[in-house]
Amino acid sequence: NAPSTFAAWDEMTKTILAAQEEWKTIGFAARKVNNELFARFRALCDDFFARKAEFFKRSKEDMSENLRLKTEICEQAEKMQDSTEWRKTTDAILALQELFSILPARQVWFLSSRPRRRKLTER
Fold this sequence. Notes:
The chain has helices at residues 6-26, 31-79, 86-102, 108-112. With 123 residues, the protein is mostly helical.
């Protein structure tokens, strides 16, 4: 079973790296089987790191798409900020909040750090 979270992949990576370090300290086996054993061990490590790379690639693609969608939601909300149609705007903002909440939260830090447009008032 492949890990399904970033933390789980990090923990498994530590385990694999520790096994590789241990492998180096064990020394050689009989010449007949040493190369075969190393090839087998190396294939297992290569497979792990290939699956890890694929997980992170898919995760990055998913996060990029989530960021795009959440940015669009923010832009839609910003277009309504000067509206005086309170009920209509409230309903629209609530619908946008619902859409926003169903997307994963990994990119929220970026959206909350967007510069806020301020309406200047005359004195």
